[in-house]
Design brief:
15% helix; disordered C terminus; elongated
Length: 423
C-alpha cells in the first residue's frame, strides 16, 4: 500500500511537471500566444518589412514605419512608436488595452478616425502633414495631442474618465477645429481637459468644449477664437475651471458648476448669433464662485436661485450680458494680434474695484432665467456624450452629431444627469 501511494504521488508530481514544461515550451516556441497584436486590416504584422495595403509597414521591435499604406483599419494593443512617412490613407485606427502609442507624421497622410480605448495612452504629434476627422477617447484612456504648426481636426471627443490634453509644441501652434461642420467638440465626459500654449480656431457653427460630468478644465497660455462661420461656443464643466494667461473671443457662454478662476486673461464673450439666448443672458457664470486674479477690470456678482447661489462676471454694468475682461499684463497668447487693444496695456492704476461676492442680490432679477438657460445649454453639451460612437476592438463607427436635435436630446440628458446613471 505504501509503495502504491508513493507511486501515485510520484505520478501526480510528474504530471504537474509535464504540464509546466509544456506551458514553458509553448511560450518559447509559440511566442505569438503571449504577444500583443499589430494589425492592418486582416493582416497581422510581423517583425521586418510587411507589404500591405499597397505600401510597406516596417516593424522593428516597437517602432513601426508606414509608407504608402491604404487600409480600412489599423489596430494595436502593443506599445508602439509609429512614423507615418507619407502616402498613408487609413480610415480607422484603434489603440486598445494598456498600450502606449506615439504617432509621428511626415509627408502627406490622411489618418481619418483615431480612437484610444481601455487603459491605453495615445500621443499624437500633429502638424500640417496630417488631417483628422474624428479623434475619440473612451474608458480610462489618455489622449495627448501635441500640435506643431497648423493641424486640421474635425472633432476631439472623449467619454468615460478619459483625459484629453492639447498642447502647442512651439509658438504659433494652431488647431483648426470643425471646419465645415454644424457642430464640433473638444471635450470629455468625466475626465480632465487641458489646453496649453495653442490657438484653437473654432470653425464649426457650434463648438462644445469642456468636461461634462465633473472633470477639471484648464485653459493655459492659449487662445480660443471663433471663426467667421461660428455662431455659438459653450465652454463648460460640472467641475472646476482655470483660465490663465489666455485670451478668448466668441459669442456664447463660459460656465462651471465648481469654482472658476480667471487669472491674467482677456475674455470678450458676447451674445451668440446662432440662436436666441434671452433665457441665459449672462456670459460667464459659476455655481460655486468666480475668483479674478491679475485683471484690470471685472466685478463678480451673485444671487440665489432655488436656494442655491449663482455667480456671474460683469464688466460693462449690464449684468454680464457682454463680458470684456482685460488682463493686468499681456497674456501669453500663442498668436497675439497685431493691433493690441489699449486696455491690455493700461497702467495698473486703472484697475477697477472688484465687488466681493454678494448673496441674494435683489437687483439680479433674471437669475432664474439664467439657471434655466444653463441647464438647456448643458443639456446640449451632454447630449454629445450620450451619442458618442462606440469604439470596439474590431471596428470603429462614427455617428454624425445633429445640433438640430439638441432640445430633444437635452431632455434625455437631464434624466441621466438627475439619476447619475449613464447609458
Amino acid at each position: 500500500m505504501r509503495a502504491t501511494t508513493n507511486n501515485g504521488r510520484f505520478s501526480v508530481r510528474r504530471a504537474v511537471a509535464l504540464v509546466l514544461a509544456t506551458v514553458v515550451a509553448c511560450n518559447l516556441f509559440f511566442p505569438s500566444f503571449a504577444q500583443a497584436m499589430v494589425r492592418v486590416d486582416d493582416v497581422e504584422l510581423n517583425q521586418g518589412v510587411n507589404e500591405v495595403g499597397g505600401g510597406t509597414a516596417t516593424l522593428t521591435d516597437s517602432n513601426l514605419e508606414m509608407e504608402g499604406v491604404t487600409a480600412a483599419e489599423f489596430y494595436t494593443d502593443e506599445d508602439l512608436t509609429i512614423d507615418y512617412a507619407g502616402g498613408n490613407a487609413i480610415d480607422e485606427t484603434t489603440v486598445a488595452g494598456d498600450a502606449e502609442v506615439e504617432m509621428n507624421f511626415s509627408g502627406e497622410n490622411d489618418v481619418t478616425n483615431v480612437a484610444v480605448t481601455d487603459d491605453a495612452s495615445l500621443t499624437i504629434n500633429a502638424n500640417e502633414h496630417n488631417t483628422f476627422d474624428e479623434v475619440l477617447a473612451t474608458d480610462n484612456s489618455n489622449l495627448n495631442l501635441n500640435v506643431d504648426g497648423t493641424a486640421k481636426i474635425g472633432s476631439v471627443d472623449a467619454s468615460g474618465a478619459a483625459n484629453v490634453a492639447v498642447r502647442g509644441a512651439q509658438q504659433g501652434a494652431t488647431i483648426d477645429l470643425g471646419a465645415g461642420r454644424d457642430i464640433s467638440f473638444l471635450d470629455t465626459e468625466s475626465g480632465n481637459l487641458s489646453v496649453e500654449n495653442v490657438r484653437v480656431n473654432l470653425n464649426a457653427k457650434e463648438a462644445i468644449l469642456g468636461s461634462a460630468l465633473g472633470g477639471m478644465v484648464t485653459i493655459d497660455s492659449s487662445s480660443l477664437v471663433a471663426g467667421e462661420d461660428n455662431g455659438f461656443v459653450f465652454l463648460g464643466t460640472c467641475g472646476t475651471m482655470l483660465i490663465k494667461d489666455s485670451s478668448m473671443e466668441f459669442g456664447g457662454m463660459v460656465y462651471s458648476t465648481g469654482q472658476m478662476t480667471i487669472d491674467n486673461s482677456n475674455m470678450r464673450i458676447t451674445k451668440p448669433t446662432a440662436f436666441g439666448t434671452d433665457s441665459w443672458p449672462h456670459r460667464v457664470s459659476s455655481r460655486t464662485g468666480i475668483d479674478l486674479r491679475n485683471e484690470l477690470n471685472g466685478i463678480v456678482m451673485s444671487g440665489m436661485q432655488e436656494g442655491k447661489p449663482i455667480f456671474f462676471l460683469d464688466t460693462n454694468e449690464n449684468f454680464g450680458r457682454v463680458v470684456e475682461l482685460w488682463a493686468g499684463a499681456r497674456p501669453a497668447d500663442p498668436t497675439p494680434a497685431a493691433d493690441e487693444t489699449p486696455a491690455q496695456s493700461a497702467p495698473i492704476a486703472h484697475v477697477a474695484s472688484k465687488a466681493l461676492p454678494r448673496t441674494a442680490d435683489p437687483s439680479v432679477a433674471l437669475l432664474p432665467l439664467l439657471a434655466a438657460g444653463v441647464l438647456l445649454v448643458i443639456g446640449a453639451f451632454l447630449a454629445g456624450r450620450l451619442e458618442l460612437a462606440p469604439v470596439r476592438a474590431n471596428g470603429w463607427v462614427a455617428h454624425a452629431h445633429d445640433s438640430r436635435r439638441a432640445p430633444r436630446r437635452a431632455q434625455r440628458v437631464f434624466d441621466a444627469l438627475g439619476s447619475r446613471r449613464r447609458r
